[in-house]
Amino acid sequence: MSKRDQFISRIRRNLSEVENDLMDNALAGHIDRRGFLAHGTRLGLSLPLLGALGGAMGMGTPRAARAAGTVGGTLRIAMTVPAGAIDPVTIADDGGLMVMMQTAEYLCALNPDFTLRPVLATSWSPNQDGSVWTFKIRQGVKFSNGEPLNADAVVASVERLVNPKNASNALSAFKGVLSPGSSKKIDDYTVEFHLDAPSGNFPYTMSSDNYNLVMLPANYAGDFEKTFVGTGPFKLEKYIPKVGCSFVRNDDYWGPKAFLDRVEFTFYTDMQPQVLALQGGQVDMLAQMPVASGRAILHNPQFNIVRCKSSAHNQVHMQCDAGPFKDKRVRQALALSLNRKAIIKGLYQGYADIGNDSPFCAAFPSTDTAVPQRDQDLKKARALLEQAGVGHGFSVTLTTEQFLEIPDYAVLIQSFAKKIGIDIKLHIESQDAYYGKAVPGQSDWLDSPLGITDYGNRGVPNVFLNAPLTSSGTWNAARFKNPTYDGLVTDYVKALDLSAQKAVSGKIETLLLDETPIIFGYFYNYLYATSKAVSGVLPVGDRPFLQTVSIAQS
Amino acid sequence: MGFYRALLYRLALAVVTLFLLSIIVFAGCQVLPGDVGRAILGPFADARAVAQLNHQLGIDRPLLVQYWSWITGMVQGNMGLSYTYRAPVAPFIGHALLNSLKLAAIAFILVVPAGIFGGIVAALRAGSWVDRSIVIAGLSATVVPEFVSGIVLIMVFSIWLHVFPLTGTAPRHAGVLEQIYYLLMPALPLFMILFGYIARMARAGMIEALTSDYTRTAVLKGLSRRQVIGRHVLRNALLPTITVIATQCGYLIGGLVVVETLFNYHGIGSLIFAAAKAKDFPMLAAGILVIGTVYVGANLIADLLYSALNPRISFGGRR
Fold it and tell me: For chain A, does the N or the C end have fewer beta carbons within 10 angstroms?
């Protein structure tokens, strides 16, 4: 037995059945390093251990630890103004989360490669069937108000969000996953979560992916905006609603200290002035930059563009229970009419990945990439319409929201559909009008025969698989009801190991490709722009963490 | 009717106007699509959370109860709590109003004398190339929207030449001169929009006054040209211009959403725009009432000025 094999088998003896399945997959070459790390961290294996195992299996060395940065300086960031009060319980907007995350931390956080890294939890592990998950809490951590981080704080933070009396924005993420009273303190630094149903991806529900779930002191009184109480690498200096805020380095931080002395955020109501501010040297970084607003600087060598793959996308739903799209051949035809590569180039200048009409994007390790990619095929599309008895075409209204690139996407779909004889009329309205009351009968989103809806980044496809597609899904605008599909999703959600997940994901992808209730044309990237002086931006899905950022002193 | 009685009458009318305005705003808020809790929590929030938040904010109460509790608070000087910021409205409004007044004042100080002067010069040389260029330049500048002129100004003066900052917001603790320096750039697009308008009104008024009987009489009785223009023509010529300027006050205080957005300046225009988008009724209503008050006040001052300049009309009837 070689030294390498000895190392691997010594480790394997201490691993559970589920963890060993991951090892089998890795050794057989079924998953790459990224997938191995993603699943390993999900199961609660530590990154150093996974790195060592991955190295022993020839997967290459793990990502180098932080590059050395310059200590000191103030980073000035332009960002979109938080939509309202900074309240971790209700917060839902990118602007608010961006400032909240400077001082408040999660149990675990999403890495750029969709793995999880321990933050305030040091490890986590499931029981045999994934119905109970145990989280170990980091010891010796104190909140900025002096309160200790312990199991009480964790249980209180979770219970606050699962309680329907608290107007909690995480309620939809916890629905069917975790109920009030199911979080149990085992000792001062161990918490058990008893799930409503077994779930293999539960750690993602406890991570930054479920963005309301920051850890707050057990006695938190609801005044976050005044104190920004947290355990994070920065402390609040000043917060002025609608104007801006600043943070200073927390020298008592439990982990590696931040490089920057200060971070200064200026709030803007629109993207264009932010881009101008970066061009004029008034700020060093844009917290977020949609491609459409950033064209002026995308190819300008004076700026760094940090690109982060994400699972964020715009869904094109087609109502499956009535109207022109009742016949799946019509739905397939519309999907086949689109030239996805041209759409990605036109809308995102290439900063997006192609979608295959299921929520499984290339970024998820559990995606079965063997399912053939759907491409434009006008001949086949016309034939399908002919078979469905609408060879002469038909007319339909596409309803959608005035939001980022969506209206442009609608126009592109309109022009592609025209090629196969489908006459699409556009109805583009404000986001408020589109979402309405967000319940069927009172929402253009859920009532329109054809519509486009934006979905943000998620670390695992669970939410995308459930709410918009299952028979009981609350955001099922496509009115897709398919018992086989529902069963497959249940299997996927409870699957603990990667091979089980992959087996199901392939079936789901194939089923959705055939039924096509929703067109997933692309998954776009998140972009951050900085001046050349800024380095170390660690993008995590839709939000950059600033702990590792440094700025060169001029 | 005496002066003070007339003033009281006007003030009472203003209160009635503002009261009606508050009802219109409240009704308007009910018609806006979506609801407040949904706007705060986002489309993907659980319906129970939305209902709970609406309950906490008190907007699940009957409409009349909501309006009554708001208006009684308002009468006692309590503007209420913002739905979105869950904090008292008054500091937001005060801060934004102060900012708006500063920007409006700078724009006003620049454009009013320049516009009137341009109009007078153009009228005195009516038909000449000077007249034509003032009229055409003013008209051309007026039709350029603020977002175009603003971006061009930013590109030229802030990004290429680096002579002006890109924002209207001066750093905290900035002195008066520094604040004025920061406000010059945002004031320029406003200058461009209003200059042509005011100059044309002044020019038309001047030309009318110059050809009137009283001017001919003044000339015929042997007054010098300077005396004719100073004493007789200007007083009459500027009357319509004053009305125009007064009506622009409402715009200068509350209508600058585009300029405020572009120069990231926190005025009352963008405050109420954001409040309207979020259906934040207390913030929206307070903002609109403040703008309404400014508007009513500006018109009152214009009327007073009018009567001071025109001996034929006096405020509150014959003196």
Answer: C
Write down the pLDDT at residue A258. Answer: 93
H or E, element range at A528: strand A526-531
CB A169 to CB B45 under 8 A? yes
CA B84 to chain A, closest CA, distance in angstroms equals: 5
B87 to A241: CB separation less than 8 angstroms, yes or no: yes
Our measurement of the distance from residue A54's CA atom to the centroid of its chain's CA atoms, rounded to an integer in Å, reads: 25
Global ipTM: 0.83
Give φ, ψ of A395 to 5 degrees: -115, 140
Average pLDDT over residues A201-223: 93
Pairing of strands A285-286, A450-455: unpaired
3-class SS of residue B6 = helix
Average pLDDT taken over every residue of chain A = 89
The helix-helix angle for B129-143 and B176-210 (nearest 10°) equals 130
User: Cβ of A87 and B165 within 8 Å?
Assistant: no
Of B34, B53, B261, the CB nearest to A269: B261
Residue A90 and residue B43: Cβ atoms within 8 Å? no
Residue pair A184/A198 in contact by the 8 Å Cβ criterion:
no
The count of other CB atoms within 10 Å of the CB of residue B208 is: 15
Cα A352 vs. chain centroid, distance in angstroms?
15
Question: Does the pLDDT at position B313 exceed 90?
Answer: no
Task: Search chain A and give the residue with CA nearest B46.
Answer: A172
Among A247, A467, A455, A487, which residue's Cα sits nearest to residue A355? A455
User: Tens digits of per-residue pLDDT, B51-81?
Assistant: 999 998 888 888 899 899 988 998 888 988 9
Phi then psi for residue B78, to 5 deg, are -105, 110
Residues of chain B found within 8 Å of residue A300, distances taken between Cβ atoms: none
What mean pLDDT comes out for the span A266-274? Answer: 91
Within B221-280, where are the H helices?
A: 225-227, 234-237, 239-254, 257-262, 268-277
Distances (CA, A) of B237 to A274, B118, B121, B219, B233: 45, 13, 13, 16, 6
Q: What is the pLDDT of residues B212-229, one digit of tens each?
A: 888 888 888 888 888 888
| Residues A309, A293: Cα–Cα separation, whole Å | 18
Which DSSP string do the residues of A415-479 spell out, in sequence order? HHHHHTTEEEEEEEE-HHHHHTTSSTTS-HHHH-SEEEEEE---SSTHHHHHTTTSTT-TT-TT-
CB pair distance less than 8 Å for A437 and B34: yes
Burial zone of B241 (CB within 10 Å; 0-12 exposed, 13-18 middle, 19+ buried): buried
Task: For residue B107, give the H/E element and its range.
Answer: helix B89-124
Name the pLDDT band for A152 (thresholds 50, 70, 90): very high
Specify the DSSP class assigned to residue B264.
T
Question: What 8-state DSSP symbol labels residue A218?
Answer: T
What torsion, rounded to 10 degrees, do the Cα atoms B275, B276, B279, B283 define? Answer: 40
Please tell me the distance from the alpha carbon of residue A25 to that of residue A32, in angstroms, as a whole number: 9
Judging contacts by C-beta atoms under 8 Å, the chain A residues touching residue B262 are 270, 272-273
- Pairwise CB contact (< 8 Å): B52 & A164: yes
Residues of A with CB below 8 A from B85's CB?
Answer: 84-85, 241-242
What is the residue-wise DSSP string for B116-185?
HHHHHHHHHTTTSHHHHHHHHHHHHHHHS-HHHHHHHHIIIIIIIS--S-S-S-PPTT--HHHHHHHHHH
Contacts of B150 in chain A (CB under 8 A): none
**In the 8-state DSSP scheme, what is residue A142?**
B
Chain A CB contacts of B98 under 8 Å are: none
B window 68-127, beta carbon within 8 A of A: 83-87, 92
pLDDT at A65: 37
Tell me the pLDDT band of A548, cut-offs 50, 70 and 90. confident
**pLDDT of the residue at A62:** 35
B286 vs B33: which has the higher pLDDT: B286
